[in-house]
Amino acid sequence: MWHCFGGLATTLAVLFAGSALGVDDASFVSLFDGRSLEGWTPEHTDRYSVHDGVIVNSGGTGWLRYNKTLNDFELQAEYRALKKGADSGVLFRATTESTSRAPQWPAQGYQLQVVDSKKNCAILGHGVAPPKFNRNANLLKDAMKGPKEWQTITLTVIGKHAEAALNGKTITASDTIERPEGCIGLRSGNGHFEWRNLKIKELSAH
Question: Domains of the chain (ranges plus CATH)?
């Protein structure tokens, strides 16, 4: 059963309605120039590259870290899984340090799963207390497209609140994000993934 996210979620819905409708796009900063991985650092991986204007990940371990520490933000991106069951993820509020053992993801931080399965849009913790979250499985089923189709993911993080939307529909929310700041990144996983049109808007919790 789908539960309400509370007062903060209502406030967020009002604040970010303009962004969801494509209004105020000038406030977003592009994270990807379409030609190179400038501004990003591969962590324990050599499986990220740029082809035909998209970031390509061919699986494996490690992650791709954006070179800036962030507090509160709204991230928008497009992705597609090239094979059924492929998985990736958006890391956020993450340390620059990675674990010494495979899969060598951040030692601490959070992950919004981006996968071609019913586990899509779950919020996980790495080296932190597992965050609690509400996820609307019915909306996810309606919103999610199949392999090789481009999909839009939006991740908004303010204070302890994280909220994820897929193809314009809010799917997941959590109010248990404890780390106050950190890096964002793309996680390596199984199968091939592509990313494009990554952009971010820094926000204020006050």
Answer: 7-203 (2.60.120.560)
